[in-house]
Amino acid sequence: MAARINALFKLSIIAALLVTSSGVAYYYAVYLPRRDARLEQERAVEQVRAADEKRAKQSQLAFEQKQAEQHQAEVKAGAETRYQTCVDAAGAVHDTTWAAECERLAEKAQQDHADCLAKSKLSQQYCDTAYRGRDGSRNCTLPLKVATELDGGLIKARNRCAQERKAALQ
Questions:
Q1: Which residue has the higher pLDDT, 125 or 48?
Q2: How far apart are CA 147 and CA 131, in angstroms?
Q3: Each residue's pLDDT tens digit, 57-112
């Protein structure tokens, strides 16, 4: 009987060793490779997601930069348009004022000539010489002081337009 118990004991130790070794074998041969494969798959998915996020962020930054450049170009174009409109308006005011001044001086010269003729003591030849008619057209020659003031106003207006453009572009 002791030999039987001894054989049974040896068999149970062998069975225990087989069960234990099969558990260890399962752990190393099946569980760890599956876990490592799952972790690798999760890392790969995370890398793809991170790359997608990076591309999306780069696309967003490129889009925002393009929008900013487009906005800057629109601002610049608008400033240039406003500048040109301002310069054109200043030139129109200058030309209109010049023409009005030409007409006013021509009318004054004509009125002065008429007043001279109305005075009976002065001869027509004197009045014609003293109060010669002036050119009343838009392109007349104005006295230097008047022309200088009008041209100075035009220069100031153009400078103001340039300052407004510069301020709009900053």
A1: 48
A2: 21
A3: 999 999 999 999 999 899 999 999 999 999 999 999 999 999 999 999 999 988 98
Cα-flanking dihedrals φ and ψ of residue 143, to 5°? -60, 150
> Hey, is 139 helix, strand or coil?
coil
Predicted pLDDT of residue 120: 67
Question: What global pTM score does this model have?
Answer: 0.62
Q: How far is residue 100's CA from residue 110's CA, in Å, rounded to a whole number? A: 15
CA of 85: how far to CAs of 10, 31, 92, 93, in Å? 109, 80, 10, 12
DSSP string, 82-99: HHHHHHHHHHHHHHHHHH
Q: How many CB atoms within 10 Å of residue 131?
A: 19
Residue pair 150/142 in contact (Cβ under 8 Å)? The answer is yes
Is the distance from CB of 99 to CB of 150 less than 8 angstroms?
no
